[in-house]
C-alpha cells in the first residue's frame, strides 16, 4: 500500500454502501460551514495554474515518500503517503478505530460535513449498478482494498483544502476524501507514521479529478522523487518542460484507472533480452519494482551471470531484500558499486525510440550492513501474479508526468532537489515559492 517498505500501492476496488456505523453523520452533512465560502474558479485561474507540494522521504531505509496536506478551517496538517496507484485520499479519523495510523495527534474530526448517499460523487465511485445506500440521506461509506492486502474503511467527507497556485492565487476548494476509522496493514511492521494516503489516480474520487472538475487545474499530475530523498509533487501542467519529455500512451484498457503502459521489452546494457511484452503500472506507492515471475527470473539471470568473476559474492545473511551482494569491504554508497552493474532500460514498442532508462541506481540499494541489494522483486511472491510494478526505486531523479487529458505518461531526467518553473529553475530552496504545505489565513 505504499505505507510500508515493501508495500504495493494501488487500489483494487471500492465498496460503498457499508453499514452506517459512523457516529458523526447528520442531516446537515455535506453543507458548507456558514463562516466560510467555498472557492469557485474564475476566468483568471480556470485551468491555468498548478499546485505544488514539497515531498519528504526516501526508498531506503524509510520506504515511502510523503507530502503535507492542509485540511479544514482552521486547517490541520496531515502527512500523507503519495500513491499514483490508488484514487481515494483518506486520513485517519478522530473516531473509535482499528489499525489506527500514527501519530495519534494527526486525526481528522468531521463537523457536519459527511458526504451523503445522494451526492453525485458517492454514486460515481460505486462500481456496481445497485444503489450504494438504502436511503439518500445516509452517509456515504467507502472501503479501499490494496494489492498488498492492506485496506481502509471509513466514510466520505468534504472539507476545505487550502492551496496556493503557481500563478500566485490562493484557493480553498471543498474536496471530498475518506475519513478512515478501520485500517488494515499487511506485513510484520507496525502501522506507518503517516496519517493516510494521497491518491493520485484518475477516477472521479481523486483530488486531482475534483480540482479539474472545479476548473482549477489541468487533469495532469506529476512527481519528481530525488535519489537523495525528498522531491516535489504537482497538480497541473505548469512545471512540465517544453522539450525533452519522452511520452508513451496510457493503456486505454485499464479498467482499474491505473497509470499503465506497454508492452515493453527489457534491455540489458543496451541489448535486447528475452524479457518482452511487459505491461507496467507506474506506482509511487510502491517502494520497489516488481516483475512477474518469468520476467523477474530473467532479470536475476542477466545480473547474476554478468557478475561472475567479479569481487562481489552473495550476502545471504543480509535480510534487507531477497538478493544481496557483499564486497571485500562494506559499501558506503551506490557510487562504490556502479562499475559492477550494467544499465537496464524498458523499451516501449508503441512508439519508436521510447525508453525508460534504469541505471544501476534505479534498481539497487545499499543497506545499513554495507551490502548492495537488487531492488527488483518477484511480484508472484506478494500476490501480484502477472502485474508488473514500476516503483519508487526506478522513478527516482526523473520527472514523471501522468497526463489524463492526452492519455499519456511522460518522463525526463531531472534534478528533483530543485523546482523548475516552466523552462527555468530556482537556485534556492523551493519551499517558499509554491509549496502548498502551509496554512492559508482567512484574511487572504
Going by CATH, what is the homologous superfamily of the largest domain?
Acid Proteases
Rg calculated over all Cα atoms:
22 Å
- Would you tell me the structural class of the helices and strands? mainly beta
Count of helical stretches:
4
Instruction: Give a short account of the largest sheet.
Output: 14 strands, mixed
Q: How many domains make up the 3D coordinates?
A: 2
Let me know the number of strands. 30
Strand content: 25-35%
CATH topology of the largest domain: Cathepsin D, subunit A, domain 1
Query: Based on the structure, what is the oligomeric state of the protein chains?
Result: single chain
Within the largest sheet, what's the order of strands?
1-6-7-10-5-11-4-3-2-13-12-27-28-14
Distance from first to last alpha carbon: 37 Å
CATH architecture title of the largest domain: Beta Barrel
CATH C-level of the largest domain: Mainly Beta
Global geometry: globular
Helix content: under 10%
Structural commentary:
The protein has helices spanning 120-124, 207-213, 293-307, 392-395, and strands at 11-14, 51-58, 64-71, 76-83, 90-92, 141-146, 151-160, 163-164, 170-171, 174-184, 196-199, 220-225, 231-235, 246-249, 260-268, 271-272, 278-282, 289-291, 313-314, 324-326, 344-348, 354-358, 364-366, 372-374, 376-378, 388-390, 398-403, 408-413, 420-421, 424-425. With 444 residues, the chain is mostly beta strands. It folds into two domains: 11-241 and 418-425, Acid Proteases (Cathepsin D, subunit A, domain 1); 246-409, Acid Proteases (Cathepsin D, subunit A, domain 1), CATH 2.40.70.10. The strands form six sheets. The protein has a 14-stranded mixed β-sheet with strand order 1-6-7-10-5-11-4-3-2-13-12-27-28-14, covered by helices on one side. Strands 15, 16, 17, 21, 22 and 26 form a six-stranded mixed β-sheet that branches. It has a four-stranded antiparallel β-sheet with strand order 19-20-24-23, with no helix packed on it. It is globular. The active site is at residues 83, 283. Pfam families: TAXi_C, TAXi_N. Keywords: Aspartyl protease, Hydrolase, Protease, Repeat, Signal.
